Amino acid sequence: MPILLGASPATAASILTVLPAGSQVVDTTDRLFHWLSSHPEEYAVLVGPQVGVDDAMAIAERMRSLMPTTSVVLVRDTVDAAVLTQAMHSGVREVVAASDLNQVSGALQRAHGLAVALRGNNPSSSQKSGRVITIFSPKGGVGKTTMSVNLAIALMRGGRNSVCVVDLDLAFGDIAITLQLFPTHTIEHAIGGESVMDLSFVEELMTPHESGLKVLAAPSQPDARERVTGTLVATLLETLREHYDYVVLDTAPAFDEQTLTALDETDECIIVATLDVPTLKNVKVALETLDVLGVAEGHRHLLLNRADAAVGIGPDKVEGILAMNIAVQVATSLDIAKATNAGRPLMLSNPSHPSSQAVRKLAETLMGADQRSSAGQIAEQAPRREEPSKRFRLSRR
User: Which fold has domain 130-394?
Assistant: First the structure.
């Protein structure tokens, strides 16, 4: 999917209306190349008006040597002959006006066609590049599993997207029981299969849900956790993202080996918190840890669950404590518990329920349908820092 660098929130919001769902917005060159390093399938980089001409030319020259099949499209407030000349010599594919969305859309279509033509002999070019969405909280009992299941169903968009859920709470995972599934295979049966893992191998281990959602359940016994290695998790996720639009991970409430590996592969991280002091304390420590590790910077979303003002801690105070904007609030509701106990998630049993609407809003944001707000918030949510490469791959795999 295209990636946009150096545009004001208003310009970004306008351009995102003609970009495919899942397109990214970044605010620094470091973040641009960090993203590209793990997403070599990107076919276009749009360099916006807030990037100076000389810097834009330097980016294009760097892209020409590093990723020659990825087109650089220069987006300017005004297009003149001098810029066109510089762009031609620096490897920029096209120069378009920010106000002309038809030009922007046409340039992207040509960039995609060029990428397909140039990569035509590369088998991996036809593979899907799905997105890994990790649901994480450092404290148990906050509704993480319930949110994972409902978010996954919302991401399906009635079957238009292929979605799977992987239960990485390997000791006490509840995805299967939440959906009233009785799996014959779990992730435990993938142990030792790293070298032969492909779609058919993984599909044999999955349990289908009536909604069309696929579930890779946690082991039935907690002692299997130690035998599910970080290498296995990484190989599994690489396979799944080639065949699913979205891979939703429900993780353990701890920074264990499997969770760290999952976070390393994460495109979007949903942090779940509730309105109680112990949870907020733990979430704050967890966010600081994620900062140190460089995990999902600019791609974290705070989900405030059981948001009930009567407890004495309001959303404003939460944002102040965590130094992070709340992406979505899900109010306290007995309907959620009833739906979970009935084995039919609220997103299916009552899609018009306010809690379902809240989760759907988050899903739309993740799918790129609500990029207007996220484009303006990236700078606030992602303080600039030196971008690492994969955090754990060298030492853990």
Answer: Rossmann fold (3.40.50)
Every domain of the chain and the residues it spans: 3-125, 130-394
pLDDT at 120: 63
Of 125-134, 178-187, 366-375, the one with minimum mean pLDDT is 366-375
Task: Tell me the per-residue pLDDT of 107-156, one tens digit each, with 9 for 90 and over.
Answer: 998 988 888 887 764 444 445 578 999 999 999 999 999 999 999 999 99
Of 3, 53, 63, nearest to 298 by C-alpha is 3
CA distance 58 to 54: 6
Residue 395's pLDDT band (cuts 50, 70, 90): very low
Written in H, E and C, the secondary structure of the chain is CCEEECCCHHHHHHHHCCCCCCCEEECCHHHHHHHHHHCCCCCEEEECCCCCHHHHHHHHHHHHHHCCCCEEEEEECCCCHHHHHHHHHHCCCEEEECCCHHHHHHHHHHHHHHHHHHCCCCHHHHCCCCEEEEEECCCCCCCHHHHHHHHHHHHHHHHCCCEEEEEECCCCCCHHHHCCCCCCCCHHHHCCCHHHCCHHHHHHHCEECCCCCEEECCCCCHHHHHHCCHHHHHHHHHHHHCCCCEEEEEECCCCCHHHHHHHHCCCEEEEEEECCHHHHHHHHHHHHHHHHHCCCCCCEEEEEECCCHHHCCCHHHHHHHHCCCEEEEECCCHHHHHHHHCCCCHHHHCCCCHHHHHHHHHHHHHHCCCHHHHHHHHHHHCCCCCCCCCCCHHHHC
- From residue 281, alpha-carbon distances to 163, 238, 250, 370 in Å are 32, 33, 21, 30
Q: Are 325 and 374 in contact (CB under 8 A)?
A: no
Q: pLDDT (tens digit, 9 = 90+) per residue, 185-200?
A: 999 999 988 888 888 8
Angle, helices 101-118 vs 9-16, to 10°: value is: 60
Q: Give the pLDDT confidence score for residue 21 in this predicted structure.
A: 67
Please name every residue paired with 274 in a beta bridge, in sequence order, or none if there are none: 305
- The CATH number of the structural domain formed by 3-125 is 3.40.50.2300
pLDDT digits (tens, 9 = 90+) for 5-64: 989 999 998 998 888 766 788 889 988 888 787 677 788 999 999 999 899 999 988 888
